[in-house]
Amino acid sequence: MRNYIVCYVIIRKNVRYILDGLRQQVSSSEQKVVVVSVSPQSRASLAAHYGLSSSEVALRLTSFLKNLGVHHVFETGFSRSFSLLESQREFLERFNRKDVDKKALPMLASACPGWICYAEKTHGEFILPYISTTRSPQQMMGSLVKGYFAAQKGVSPQNIYHVTVMPCYDKKLEASRPDFYLSKYETREVDCVITSGEVLKMLEEQNVFLRDVEPAPLDSMFSNVCGEELLSHAGSGSGGYLHHICKHAAKQLFGVEIEELTYKTMKNKDFQEVTLEKDGTVLLQFAAVYGFRNIQNLVQKLKRGKSPYHFVEVMACPSGCLNGGGQLKPSSEQSKKELLQQVEELYGAERTSTPEEDTRVAELYHSWLESVGEEKARLLLHTQYHAVEKNTSGLSIKW
Question: Could you tell me the pLDDT band of residue 220, with boundaries at 50, 70 and 90?
């Protein structure tokens, strides 16, 4: 495995290493195609810092990256459409077998690598059956870039260097999972992960002020874009999984059209419920659970058989992905709360689209994946989890 820049510690400490790595790939004698995929949460974080809109950041960041030698700049709002559609499909399948499979529900969201790492290490075989097998948007994009894109360009996957820009340091760990390594081609689906804050440091290393960068056209192949405006998805800043799955399930299972979801705050703002009732009967009960204290309470309820939920949007960071550990930090004149509110407003200002209406996504299901739910789609759009055995030292053994 060559030139992978996935090392959590090194990347966090040395942004120049990232720049040197990118230049090395661009100037490589192997003539690698360099692709960067940017998350909507990272764009919103940079937008708050520079006083730009999220779409303006996308245009200027595309220009900056291409001036470094990057060939294509995509955005993971596009790949998130696949994550949302697959999550909706998976939820319906689980709901329909809930009477014969006691661990079919609640379905727990799988987009957060911090939560997945905690689940695998701490609760292992008990919790893993509940977790959705649907890939995160980052790894959906990895599959798209090293699969469909490589085939379209006539390039072997190992000759593509794929970088993602993410709001979270744990995304580096996600990219390095063995499940996302293509043994046949000796390459990872995502070769390098850099955070929003590391992008800022890259700009500063180059003495570039993003507001002064001339905008460049967006690459439309894997971007959720309308003209020069990037589109987003409705719901939370963590991807809107609860929003989309709830509306889809209500319609498909019970014929109920939900115009607007009503969120009920529970013990704190990071624990919210959405309930669908009809004639006094609860049909669906969903929750958004953020932060490890709330996650631990959720798991304990599951272990006691007291969880009332059908689906839970689980995120390790309080306030979700917009508040990820890799996002930009507040200035000395601004509090963390004020910055987060600004980032949320910028993220929410993007015009929304529904994944079902994206014709390019629909075309890819048929041309690349052959059909929704078929074996190829399950292989390329889903993943698996592994219980991690706890180390037992001699000191902990009771003789």
Answer: confident
Question: 10 Å Cβ neighbour count for 73?
Answer: 26
- Same domain, yes or no: 71 and 199: yes
Mark whether 226 and 241 lie in a shared domain. Answer: no
Q: Which of 141, 162, 127, 240 has the alpha carbon at shortest distance from 5? A: 162
Kindly tell me if the per-residue pLDDT of 227 is higher than 70: yes
* Per-residue tokens: 365: 């299901």
**Separation of alpha carbons 257 and 265, rounded Å:** 23
Pair 210, 267 in one domain: no
Q: 165 and 239 in one domain? A: no
Same domain for 149 and 225, yes or no, is yes
Amino acid 397: pLDDT: 44
Q: Containing domain of residue 28, as a range?
A: 8-79+136-232+357-380
49 band by pLDDT with thresholds 50, 70 and 90? very high
DSSP state of 111: -
Query: In this structure, what token pair is assigned to residue 220?
Result: 């439309």
